[in-house]
Amino acid sequence: MNDSSPVGDADGRSVVVVGSGFGGLSTACYLANAGADVTVLEKNEQLGGRASRLHTDGFRFDMGPSWYLMPDVFEDFFADFGRRPEEYYGLERLDPHYRIFFKDGDRVDLVPDMDANRETFEAYEPGAGDALDDYLDRAAYTYDVGMEHFVYEDRSRLRDFVDPDVLRYARGLSLLGTMQDHVEEYFDHPKLQQIVQYSLVFLGGAPNNTPALYNLMSHVDFNLGVYYPEDGMGGVVDGIVAVAEELGVDFRVDHPVAEIRGREGAFAVRTEDGREFFPDEVVSDADYAHTEQELLVPEDRQYDADYWDSRTYAPSAFLLYLGVEGDVDPLEHHTLVLPTDWDDHFETIFGDPAWPEDPAYYLCVPSKTDDTVAPEGHSNLFVLAPVAPGLDDGPERRQRFRDLLLDDIAEHTGVDLRDRIVVEERFSVSEFADRYNSTQGTALGLAHTLRQTSLLRPPHASEAVDGLYFTGSYTTPGIGVPMCLISGRLTAERMTTTR
């Protein structure tokens, strides 16, 4: 056991981890390092959960996460096992971090050079350069205090927040109010508001329903930087899997779990083909609602169907994975295409669910940075449009939306892909539900709304079954690859400190 690990002693206990997303991989590493005998059961043919890879006709696509943010969290994770990320993969800082095309014809690059970013803000609104500095100072404070005292600490009960030390740390944090309210204190111009709020798409929220606390994401974006890992996010999965195997974790792919029965010290985990495992404890990194509603008998569930039906889920997504002849200038590695008024787009996700007519969307072009992801003379990109979970995504609907997106890309970026596509794969609500057992086909899990943040998210430890635990984006600290890595640590801490 590495002495630097924050996790206690697992004293030779046997643990089955269901699912190999970043939360499951992280939990497995911490528990194995603490002395547990860990087996990870993965439903699909490859490890990584939503961070799957698609290989076809010489193209390699990251199917899920594509932004490498919060490098400090990855450094902390590897350091907990006496290792460094660069031992497993390289990193390249992107410049620009990303490009935005507004649909009225404006184009904005956000870059590592903060003087240039100040000039960009100032061009839209006099005084906005100084306001950006003030906004980022607040975001940096929120990040430093929030990460140390609220993200890396599992405050899952109300009494955890009434401790005098916690109240002292919380002073000055935007724990109440929405991101929209907070941003309006600094910027009047709607485009500047959008620039500092775009990351809400990755948190599964909207400006009017996400807590202002998440202003910390602007510190992540502007100050910590945006990176591309060697071999993409799949390379990060490979690195973490390598650490897990060095620690003794046993991985089993093509092992979809059908049932979890028992209690601490006497579990039975059965796969769909009848294989059985008998661990002392179980951790589920599968969809939380799916685990409770499908893998557990009714008396072992913490929540009923009405509870899960009443939750606000993060968006699903419509994705096009495209292999294209030639280059795709002027797209950058990360490109956002935004309506000048995106309220209608969020309304179609959180208000009146429907396929958006004027979508906000994201284009990822890893071939701008990595020449191994596409054959020579070709470009690799995917298009991601957030859509409401649970939408009907039948073939005719998909085709119409696909055509709308390609038309929109041509009109607003000047890049016409339509006659150059040599590889095309589509992935949407149904695939999220089928491949990942994702409730309502959400791409991310529970949204970070005011009523679903911190202690209001489902717990790491089941309140109905001793020895059953949960990790991943449904739990604290929430959505995103770095948060899921931290979730794994919190789950392992809970398992090794509550016996």
Automatic annotation (TrEMBL):
It comes from the Archaea. Pathway: Carotenoid biosynthesis. The keyword Oxidoreductase applies. SUPFAM superfamilies: FAD/NAD(P)-binding domain (SSF51905). Pfam families: Amino_oxidase (PF01593). GO terms for biological process: carotenoid biosynthetic process. Residues 23-495 form the Amine oxidase domain. The lineage of its organism: Archaea, Methanobacteriati, Methanobacteriota, Stenosarchaea group, Halobacteria. Keywords: Carotenoid biosynthesis, Oxidoreductase. One of its GO terms (molecular function) is oxidoreductase activity. This is Phytoene desaturase. Gene3D superfamilies: FAD/NAD(P)-binding domain (3.50.50.60). InterPro entries: Amino_oxidase, Carotenoid/retinoid_OxRdtase, FAD/NAD-bd_sf. The gene is crtI.
